[in-house]
């Protein structure tokens, strides 16, 4: 035990008479300051200095790089025989190990919370994604202080810490510019953060933060900007800065891309590399991938290819037009993943070029869940005003725009199934391996000698934290910042780095996502599906238990292909009982709770006042205007000679409303839904100089007594049709019917400019207002 550790008696331990006293050590972080060991005398000549000592990492401690991709299937990349070449990942795997029985949770936030804490997702409040948190301990998105992150532990043990990319573990109500910030990356042990909040963002025009300060992308797509490239550049710059100023201090880098989550945004040159390579369709694709998986030895020789679910169409049942459109979707996704591999490779190369590669432990998780089927049977791109897909012909005519910021595009659910070969199902489906099994690559050149080998044995995302702690040579803390720590759930697998026969110590693991659930115990798996991923919100009205439990012996059935529920009912009952026990222990109940986001907004202020410079207010925590009658009153001052620019904007080019003064000095109100213009009012005359009041009144259509209208208004998130009326200085300048007042939830509310993507095609962002804005008052009726 090092001298730097603090000591205390463990509570509740009685020391019996006649027995020797035992003092129980506890690791407490942060470590106490070292006492002054010099001499202080009036006479400086008789004094002896002693410099304060910083906490240092254990001698020889490795740098740690934790990489996490988003929405990648087990059978997508070339390291597992997939159709998409990933040379940087291949190189890393050749230097280290591939784990073929590594498990994640079946959804973004849950995996990330479990990864960074070492505890089960529901134990730290992330049984679901932050956007649909519910007011129950397992789902409230409030990561407790009793579960310190890897970054906190490493920072208090002498590491520099930095996070880049997606952060999906802050309660949505705390993601605005006013915080609070204790659940942001910088409040969770990361000294530096550059990335975005939430589940997804526009890859061409993202909503970025540096620390807790909002920043705008350095350029436009036409100027060559892309988020993944930007993240790689920033990480490389941070590494260079660290090497220049603290080269003797180990670092922990968490590099978590927004790729390859929707929207599938990537440049045409990457897409072109895959032209025609998915024309065979998903059924044939799975067969081809399965054959390569066996040839590479990444799956057992006796593994079986699981069949296509009835809910997914056969490729041969599609029309020629559908095949052409959906093949294009896969080409775009493949380009997106290939580009991501290239950018991650640049970060790893930077570490090698600095001479730090040998003693850098890289843990690369190729997907925070299985491939995503959230695009539904047809995929998502061009939509009608109500959000439904336009005709196949209309979509095909715009297929060349896939990859651009014209859409928040997503491929067909069938491609997700295809890229999860050989497993059943996809992201969200925690009952099956298609949602929960992804590749893990571990590289540590100075320690791993069995280079290029494949490791079996059940591993789980909670195992990463204890593995890192053992590799570094530190003890998981009992107390951090005065908070007693909950025990780690994961088990270290450092022994497998050198021993190919090392058995997994992780023998039991529970899984649950949106009501889909599973339990693993000593090689056996039982699971029950609830809803398909593209009908997630139907889970709230669907009784639990409509689908029967299934049973698999994974020790003999790698791909989960033979359901043994009828053959072995006693084993199934045993595992069902174990699931219930683990669900109660880890806060999984109630299953599929209704999100707080959809509860009536009775506590929302009826009047909100914004002032110039208010911006980056996320739509999800902004005023609920979409289904409620409301009035927006803007008090502005127009200089002599006129003014122009945005007064208030909420949303973006795929849904929102804006009040602005155009280049001719006229007051304008515009709305769009899913990229379709839905309403426009323009004043005939210019707004006069001096103080002016511009008022927009929106009245929801429908019977005020209709209970459905009341519910929609209470939820405040269900867009409704209505009538908009615009006036200037009390005089009406026009009105229009709006079919769907929809604000895209990936965007923000801004006063005095339009940040992000433009709501209107009639100006270029940010179109900053050149007059003066006193107030913008929003009255919710």
UniProtKB/TrEMBL annotation:
CDD domains according to UniProt: PAS_like
Classification via Gene3D superfamilies: 3.30.1120.10, Alkaline Phosphatase, subunit A
Limits of the Sulfatase N-terminal domain: 62-474
Transmembrane segments: none
Signal sequence interval, chain numbering: 1-25
UniProt similarity note: Belongs to the sulfatase family.
Name of the protein: Sulfatase
């Amino acid at each position: 035990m090092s001298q730097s550790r603090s000591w205390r008696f463990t509570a509740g331990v009685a020391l019996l008479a006649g027995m020797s006293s035992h003092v129980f050590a506890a690791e407490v972080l942060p470590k106490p300051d070292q006492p002054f060991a010099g001499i202080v005398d009036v006479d400086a000549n008789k004094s002896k200095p002693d410099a304060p000592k910083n906490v240092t990492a254990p001698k020889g401690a490795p740098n740690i790089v934790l990489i996490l991709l988003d929405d990648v299937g087990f059978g997508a990349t070339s390291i597992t025989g997939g159709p998409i070449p990933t040379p940087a990942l291949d190189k890393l795997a050749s230097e280290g190990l591939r784990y073929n029985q590594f498990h994640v949770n079946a959804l973004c936030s849950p995996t990330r919370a479990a990864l960074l804490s070492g505890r089960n997702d529901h134990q730290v409040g992330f049984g679901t994604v932050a956007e649909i948190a519910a007011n129950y301990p397992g789902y409230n998105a409030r990561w407790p202080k009793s579960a310190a992150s890897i970054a906190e532990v490493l920072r208090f043990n002498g590491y520099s810490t930095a996070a880049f990319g997606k952060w999906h573990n802050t309660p949505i109500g705390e993601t605005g510019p006013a915080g609070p910030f204790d659940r942001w990356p910088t409040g969770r042990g990361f000294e530096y953060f550059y990335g975005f909040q939430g589940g997804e963002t526009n890859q061409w025009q993202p909503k970025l933060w540096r620390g807790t300060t909002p920043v705008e992308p350095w350029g436009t797509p036409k100027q060559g900007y892309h988020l993944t490239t930007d993240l790689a550049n920033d990480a490389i710059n941070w590494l260079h800065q660290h090497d220049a100023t603290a080269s003797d201090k180990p670092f922990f880098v968490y590099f978590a891309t927004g790729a390859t989550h929707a929207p599938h945004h990537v440049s045409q040159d990457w897409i072109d590399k895959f032209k025609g390579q998915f024309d065979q369709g998903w059924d044939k694709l799975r067969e081809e991938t399965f054959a390569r998986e066996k040839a590479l030895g990444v799956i057992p020789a006796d593994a079986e290819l699981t069949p296509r679910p009835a809910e997914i169409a056969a490729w041969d049942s599609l029309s020629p037009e559908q095949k052409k459109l959906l093949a294009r979707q896969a080409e775009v996704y493949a380009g997106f993943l290939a580009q991501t591999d290239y950018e991650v490779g640049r970060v790893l190369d930077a570490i090698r070029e600095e001479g730090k590669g040998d003693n850098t432990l890289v843990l690369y998780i190729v997907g925070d869940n299985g491939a995503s089927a959230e695009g539904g049977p047809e995929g998502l791109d061009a939509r009608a005003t109500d959000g439904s897909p336009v005709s196949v012909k209309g979509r095909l005519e715009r297929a060349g725009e896939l990859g651009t910021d014209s859409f928040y595009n997503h491929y067909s659910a069938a491609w997700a199934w295809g890229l999860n070969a050989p497993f059943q199902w996809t992201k969200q489906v925690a009952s099956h391996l298609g949602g929960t099994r992804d590749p893990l690559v571990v590289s540590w050149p100075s320690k791993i000698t069995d280079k290029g080998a494949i490791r079996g044995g059940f591993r789980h995302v909670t195992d990463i934290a204890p593995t890192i702690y053992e590799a570094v040579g530190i003890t998981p803390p009992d107390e951090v910042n005065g908070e007693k720590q909950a025990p780690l759930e994961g088990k270290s697998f450092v022994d497998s780095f050198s021993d190919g026969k090392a058995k997994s110590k992780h023998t039991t693991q529970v899984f649950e996502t949106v009501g889909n659930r599973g339990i693993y115990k000593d090689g056996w798996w039982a699971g029950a599906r609830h809803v398909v991923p593209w009908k997630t919100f139907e889970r709230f009205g669907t009784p639990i238990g409509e689908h029967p439990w299934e049973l698999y012996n994974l020790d003999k059935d790698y791909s989960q292909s033979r359901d043994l529920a009828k053959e072995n009912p006693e084993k199934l009952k045993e595992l069902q009982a174990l699931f219930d026990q683990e669900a109660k222990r880890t806060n999984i109940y109630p299953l599929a709770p209704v999100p707080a986001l959809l509860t009536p907004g009775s506590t929302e202020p009826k009047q909100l006042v914004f002032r110039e410079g208010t911006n980056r207010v996320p739509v999800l925590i902004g005023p609920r205007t979409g289904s409620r009658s409301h009035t927006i009153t803007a008090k502005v001052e127009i200089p002599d000679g006129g003014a122009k620019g945005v007064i208030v904007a909420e949303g973006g080019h795929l849904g929102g409303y804006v009040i602005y003064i155009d280049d001719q000095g006229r007051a304008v109100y515009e709305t769009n839904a899913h990229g379709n213009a839905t309403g426009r009012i323009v004043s005939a005359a210019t707004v006069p100089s001096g103080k002016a009041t511009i008022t927009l009144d929106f009245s929801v259509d429908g019977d005020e007594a209709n209970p459905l209208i009341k519910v929609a208004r209470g939820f405040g998130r269900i867009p409704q049709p209505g009538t908009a009326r615009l006036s200037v200085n009390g005089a009406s300048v026009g009105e229009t019917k709006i079919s769907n007042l929809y604000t895209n939830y990936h965007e923000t509310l801004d006063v005095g400019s339009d940040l992000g993507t433009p709501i209107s095609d009639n100006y270029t962002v940010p179109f900053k207002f050149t007059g003066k804005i006193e107030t913008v008052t929003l009255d919710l009726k």
